[in-house]
Specification:
Chains A, B, C: It is a multi-pass membrane protein. The structure is a homotrimer. Helices cover about 80% and strands about 0% of the residues of chain A. Chain A is an all-alpha fold and about 200 residues long. The longest helix of chain A is centred in the N-terminal third of the chain and has 24 residues, at about 1-25. Chain A starts with a helix and ends in a 9-residue tail after the last helix. Chains in contact: A-B, A-C, B-C. At the B-C interface, helix 2, helix 6 and helix 7 of B face helix 1, helix 2 and helix 3 of C.
Chain lengths: ~200, ~200, ~200
């Protein structure tokens, strides 16, 4: 599905921006910030492909991913002030990113013969692991463990996908609905300042 | 060997509890604590399987591992106060866990044609890497590098396994003896407050 | 090529020393320091082999790597004071190490059918990831993100390799020149206190 491919490149681009911004806030040098932008963008898909033994890993054979990342990193360096003001815009892209990455992860997982629950987990891995590695490299407890309904939105979207799929819904339509559900849950949770309960 | 499989599930359950407790102490939210419980439980086996190229990865095709983890995480949330008082009980299960994980790791490594020393390392990887990832995610220097004869107990148990194996000891009996050796070394070292020397 | 193999063992030896020294400075115990020495030495090659799906992983089938690491760790424990004074010597070996690891990484990547840019990235991964994992385990933001022209030297050397290769230069000669370029860039940058600009 071409739409998903293009959305994937956009997700990669936006994740590269978010990684580069995090690294810049830690006063890392240009190289460090670029590498962290890179890892943020491809980390989730890479871990998913390693776990599922899907080779070759997507970004290792498609230059467009590299271009998307280079563009993301360069944009951050050039338009840094502007990008910070664009936080709202970034949030939207980032949210689209996790929606697309989740659905792409599920799609990839279905290439292997695994149970739906594991496919949903692979979807979440695709969407969140890049950010987790970014936070570890920046020496912080990963953001997704600390706030926001983020990964849980991915899980919910993945569950919706399989529920609709059991009704034989058209696959492309199902992808779009699932992505919208993820975007919706996350947006509403931010607007309403929802977060997961803390256990201590 | 069925016994080993059931002990593996118990190990998974106990490691999920230890991960969840660590995360809770860092004031992570419910989701974060669950994920860290999950990773603590499956991390070691996953890294071992990736290094040895053993696919599919066990927990991706067996729902019982998920149930063991869900049970471990839920138990921690529900019986938290009670579990803290049960530290001694937990210690026993955790120690059984590393014993079983070490022997299972060696057993898996023997599926591939590698030297005993690497099989022993794979045993130790199975038993310890989950805890290492748990500590990294919680932004701490991994516990096993800082105190206790923990990983060294795994190495010793692994060595015993191969020594007994060279005498053609019955495999199941050998598994049990090696597990008991690991449990014994760790228990004695805790009782006697032994720890590895520090080099600076 | 035998020369490359022996240089690889020397690189492994020196990286094991650098890992052990870092761990010792964090007051880790003997076991922790040894494991971190081990991971520093083999981490880069392992991640590269996992990404490229090259199995079995080199150090899992060749005892000489283990001996090189054991020797590195033991030397650090025995001759610690002496080694600290030898910082200059260590720097030279470490620099040779990253040069050799980069070229070896590219050579390995060429076993798979990927584009030059990805082979260069794999060269850099081979040379730097071990150090990155070392720093994460020691709970620090990875050194290569913070200072020195280190990874960029690897990238430059990798680029030189492919440029010379396009002129059909003899492969062994090309390996040596590329290694020397990496060593040269890093040495000059240290002497002249060059570093990458910081973006904030």
């Amino acid at each position: 599905m071409d739409l998903l491919y293009y959305l994937d490149l956009i997700g990669t681009f936006v994740f590269a921006i978010s990684g580069t911004i995090s690294a810049a806030e830690k006063k890392l040098d240009l190289f460090g910030a670029s590498v962290i932008g890179f890892i943020t963008a491809v980390g989730g898909g890479t871990v998913r492909d390693l776990l599922l033994d899907l080779h070759p890993i997507t970004w290792l054979i498609d230059m467009y991913y590299i271009w998307a990342i280079v563009l993301g990193v360069l944009s951050t360096f050039l338009f840094r002030r502007y990008i910070v003001k664009l936080r709202r815009t970034l949030f939207i892209f980032d949210t689209i990113g996790i929606g697309v990455f989740t659905v792409l992860g599920i799609q990839k997982a279905l290439l292997v013969d695994i149970l739906p629950v594991f496919a949903i987990i692979m979807g979440m891995v695709s969407a969140t692991v890049g950010g987790v590695i970014r936070d570890i490299l920046c020496n912080e407890i990963p953001l997704i463990f600390r706030k926001e309904i983020y990964a849980t939105a991915c899980l919910a979207g993945g569950a919706i996908f399989f529920i609709l799929n059991s009704f034989n819904l058209d696959l492309n339509l199902n992808y779009i609905i699932s992505i919208l559900v993820i975007i919706g849950i996350r947006t509403v949770s931010i607007k309403m300042r929802l977060s997961m309960p803390n256990i201590k």
